[in-house]
Structure formats: structure tokens, C-alpha cells
Specification:
Blueprint: H1 12-15, H2 20-37, H3 44-55, H4 61-70, H5 75-115, H6 133-146, E1 151-152, E2 158-159, H7 161-164, E3 196-197, H8 203-211, E4 216-225, E5 237-247, H9 252-267, E6 273-280, E7 283-292, E8 301-302, E9 305-306, E10 315-324, H10 326-331, E11 340-347, H11 348-356, H12 369-372
Parallel strand pairs: 1-4
Antiparallel strand pairs: 2-3, 4-5, 5-11, 6-7, 7-10, 8-9, 10-11
Helix pairs in contact: 2-5, 3-5, 4-5, 6-11
The chain binds phenylalanine (PHE).
Length: 376
């Protein structure tokens, strides 16, 4: 509103109005201005401004007309001004109320349009994932050991040298540390002890025996880390299932029988097992288990040629194992004279590759959906 040409700031006398006809043309002018302005407000806040400009008690247009035109008007003009003012007020109030209703209806219908759900549109199709092959093989192995009384325990991937080495009878300068002394964590100065990424699941043998008394029958699925250069059969991260059984009467026979049962369940009833002497500081005696090649029936020959899986050897190396070394019992306060047991450490990636014909370990870690989809 341009107050420069706003006549409501002046009295009728100042405007030189002295006849009733002039009063009505003055009001017509105001009403026209109102009508022009009244379509401008589009939302609640501009509507409020508009309402206050016209109806505001202190300085709205109608108040100014009352104060400047009506109150000081001469006796002969007062009637005309009063009547015109009433008419104008009624008009202004009606229009302003109409405007409010229109704005409210507009925002409502806009909101309704925004929120309307079109039930005929196609739904969002979310692809359903599946367990990673490694997870599936973990489950297969767990089920086999569940069936003969083992239970699952899990442990930390960040370990102390004590659990990863010392308590497993691997003292600081023992040569077997060479291929395992690998990923250490950078710790703040003054940290009480070094920390490393476990290189095998065997630390859980110790943690379990510290907590439980025999009989102990557990398997430990999990991730392990070594500084291996990546190639088709090596990765700096891979998976193991540790096994540990300790009781007062466990023999080497129980040991080989358990492994044989597992291998037959996993690869099929026709597969034979054998073991060869090996060495681990925490088992004595230590062995390496082999399975007769499940792909050529243990003949080394497949489709008239050399079996590509066992390279003609007829046997496939599976994993390391052994009877728990009595020295280990010393670290967990078991009485080595009363208890005996066996342990094994199965490399899962290797087993999964064998069973499912995968020739590159790296595919397990690449998250390529084309690979993952083959194992729904
Ligand atoms: N921890 C050994 C490794 O990772 C495997 C193993 C486990 C051997 C248990 C014997 C007993 O190589």
C-alpha cells in the first residue's frame, strides 16, 4: 500500500470533501483498491498480513477511516460516512474470510494430491539375497558336528600373542611363528600388550578350556588373517573351523573315527580318509588328513585322462589335526595325567573350492553378484 497516495491518513476536511456524493466516490476508490489487493494472498502468512493491513485494530485501513474520516466528520457527512463504512467493512470481512477458506482448501488439496497412493502402480521389487557360499559351508560343517554332540563357540578376531601363540605352546622365537607372525595392530604408546589379527582359530581352544571343564566338545567357525600374497589359492583373510574334544577317555581312535565320519558326511559315503604325520606345536602326535579324491573316485583318472582335481594323486590334502599336546593343558590348568583329546583346524575356503569346483579363492571376497547367484 502506498501511503503517499493513501487518503485514509487525512481527514475529510483536509481532503476537501464536503458533500455526501464525494464521500461515496471516496469509498468506491477504497473498495476498488481492496478488490485489487484481495486476490494476492496465496498462503496463510500473506493472508494474515493482508487481513491485518485492512482489519488491524491499531492501523488497519478501516481503523484509519474510522479515526480520520468518521470521527472528525461534520454532522451532515457523518451519516453518509457511517453507512459507507459499514458497507465497506461488511464487504472486506466477507472477502477476507472467503480468501482464507480458499487458501485452506488449496493447501489441503495440494497435500492430498501429494499423498495420494496409486495402488495400480507396480510394486518395488527388492532382490532377495542368499547366504554366501562360505556361510553355507560353515552351516554344513556345523550341522555335521552338531549331530555328534559338538556345539559352536565363537571368539575374537583381534587376539593377544598369548592366546594366538604362547598358550598354544608356541614360544616367542619358535620357527613356526614365521608364517604366522603377521598382522599386528598399531596401538597407542604404553599399551599393556601387543594385539594381532588371529592367524588361526586355535586361540579359542585355550579360551574355551579356560572357561569350561571337561568334557569339552566344541567347534569354532571364524575368520583368520595371514600375510599371504593373494593368488588363486592364497588370501590374507580366510576361514577356519576349529574343533576341540577333551575328556577323560578320548583315544586316537575316537579322533580318526570322528574325522572319518565328518569327511564321509561332507564329501559322500564313498570317500576314504587317510592321515600322514605332520607337526603342530599344540598337538602331539600331529597329522594331516587326506580324502580319496571325490571327483575321480580315488583313482587319479577322470574321463580317460589325469583327474584335474587331484592332479592324478588320487588323494586330496584336507586339513591339519592331532591329539592335544599335554603341554597345552598346563596353560589352562587341566590335569594332563587325567585328560586327553584331539583338535583339528579345517580351512573352509579350500574345502568349499574343492566341493563346489571353484578354482580361485579370490572370488569369495569380490562380492561379484554373478558368482554369488550361482549358490542361492
Ligand atoms: N591351527 C592350525 C593351522 O591353522 C591347524 C590345526 C588346528 C592343527 C588344530 C592342529 C590342531 O594351521
Amino acid at each position: 500500500m502506498n501511503s503517499g497516495e493513501d487518503k485514509t491518513g487525512k481527514t475529510l476536511a483536509e481532503l476537501g470533501v464536503s458533500r455526501p456524493e464525494e464521500v461515496s466516490s471516496l469509498f468506491a476508490e477504497i473498495r476498488q483498491r481492496f478488490d485489487e489487493e484481495s486476490s494476492a494472498p496465496r498462503d496463510e502468512s500473506t493472508w494474515k498480513e493482508f487481513r491485518d493491513a485492512w482489519l488491524g485494530r491499531k492501523s488497519g485501513v478501516l481503523t484509519r477511516i474510522t479515526d480520520n474520516w468518521l470521527k472528525p466528520a461534520t454532522a451532515e457527512l457523518k451519516r453518509a460516512v457511517g453507512a459507507a463504512l459499514n458497507e465497506l467493512r461488511a464487504h472486506v470481512e466477507t472477502k477476507i474470510e472467503e480468501r482464507r477458506a480458499a487458501i485452506e482448501a488449496g493447501t489441503e488439496s495440494a497435500a492430498m494430491a501429494r499423498e495420494r497412493v496409486d495402488l495400480s502402480l507396480p510394486g518395488v521389487i527388492r532382490p532377495i539375497g542368499s547366504h554366501h557360499l562360505i556361510r553355507q559351508v560353515f552351516q554344513e560343517i556345523e550341522d555335521i558336528f552338531f549331530s555328534i554332540g559338538f556345539s559352536v563357540v565363537e571368539g575374537p578376531e583381534i587376539e593377544t600373542p598369548y592366546y594366538n601363540f604362547e598358550a598354544l605352546n608356541i614360544p616367542e622365537f619358535h620357527p613356526v611363528r614365521d608364517d604366522m607372525d603377521t598382522f599386528y595392530l598399531e596401538l597407542p604408546k604404553g599399551a599393556p600388550e601387543p594385539l594381532l589379527l588371529r592367524t588361526h582359530t586355535s586361540p579359542m581352544q585355550i579360551r574355551t578350556m579356560e572357561k569350561r571343564q571337561p568334557p569339552v566338545r566344541v567347534i569354532v567357525p571364524g575368520k583368520v588373517y595371514r600375510r599371504d600374497n593373494p593368488d588363486a589359492t592364497h588370501s590374507f583373510i580366510f576361514h577356519q573351523v576349529e574343533g576341540l574334544a577333551v575328556d577323560t577317555d578320548i583315544t586316537f581312535c575316537d579322533f580318526t573315527g570322528t574325522i572319518e565320519y565328518f569327511v564321509k558326511q561332507f564329501f559322500g559315503p564313498g570317500v576314504k580318509t587317510r592321515f600322514r604325520p605332520s607337526y603342530f606345536p599344540f598337538t602331539e602326535p600331529s597329522v594331516e588328513f587326506d580324502a580319496s579324491c571325490p571327483f575321480c573316485g580315488g583313482t587319479g583318472v577322470s574321463n580317460g585322462g589325469t583327474c584335474s582335481k587331484c592332479k592324478g594323486a588320487a588323494w586330496i590334502e584336507l586339513f591339519g589335526a592331532g591329539m592335544v599336546d599335554p603341554a597345552v593343558y598346563g596353560f589352562v590348568n587341566y590335569d594332563a595325567k587325567k585328560v586327553s583329546g584331539f583338535a583339528f583346524g579345517i580351512g573352509i575356503d579350500r574345502l568349499a573350492m574343492l566341493k563346489y569346483g571353484i578354482d580361485d579363492i579370490q572370488v569369495f571376497f569380490q562380492n561379484d553378484a554373478r558368482f554369488l547367484r550361482q549358490f542361492p
